[in-house]
Amino acid sequence: MSKLLVNDYAFMVQPSLAAEIGLNEAILLQQIHYWLQTYSTVKNGRKWVYNTYEEWQKQIQFCSVGTIKRAMRSLEKQGFIITATFNKHRMDQTKWYTINYDKIREFEKAAQLEPMEEQIELLDNTDCPTHEVNLSKAIPKTTTKTTKEDVYIPFSEIIDYLNAKTNATYKATTKKTQQLIRARWQEGFRLVDFYQVIDIKATEWLQDAYWSKYLRPETLFGTKFEAYLNQKPKESKLREEDFDLDDEA
Fold first, then answer.
1. Which of 67, 84, 9, 3 is nearest to 39 (CA)?
2. Confidence (pTM)
3. Where in the sequence is the domain holding 91, given as residue range(s)?
4. Which member of 36, 96, 158, 190 lies 3.0 to 4.6 Å from 50 by CB, making a disulfide possible if both were Cys?
């Protein structure tokens, strides 16, 4: 199992992890990991759990709702968790959570911890229960393990997030789309970077009848990806030369 996360319903954290990301963050990360290993919902080949901030606070009563919210945002910003919205109703903004175990492994390596004796249970394991539940009670654990070593690129998570933000229906299985995402991934960009680019450009273009058509994988994930990631919010002028407009580029 991981040297940082344990499969038990307990507020146990590794001191090295807490020192790096914050105590509250480490506690929440452990809590999310626990529920992912015991009871979760599989969506797009990954395990997810969901709760409101208030429901998380019921599990960690010594933290306020505000503290929970800040810690969750911090974990997402640092890249340790991934969030999404899979709710059927637009008014339901309850977040779904999963852990970026690649980030955990990177931290273990950087901290020079001993090699893992067992692989972390990857999120594409699909044999867990798939009921949507309120996670305020302990539920018996599952013990299924996997030793998959392949590098995981979250094509579905990226495209699902783009579709949710833009009300589009792009497919994560399209060869061109996967090539673009893979190219950026090989450059060192990660899921949180894709989310940020989508957020920045959706805020800028979505309400513009002309520019909204460029909220597409060919434009967002092309060679100007890093420029989009680092741009200042709400640029005052839209210029055609700032975009990748060629579908074949």
1. 9
2. 0.43
3. 1-127
4. 96
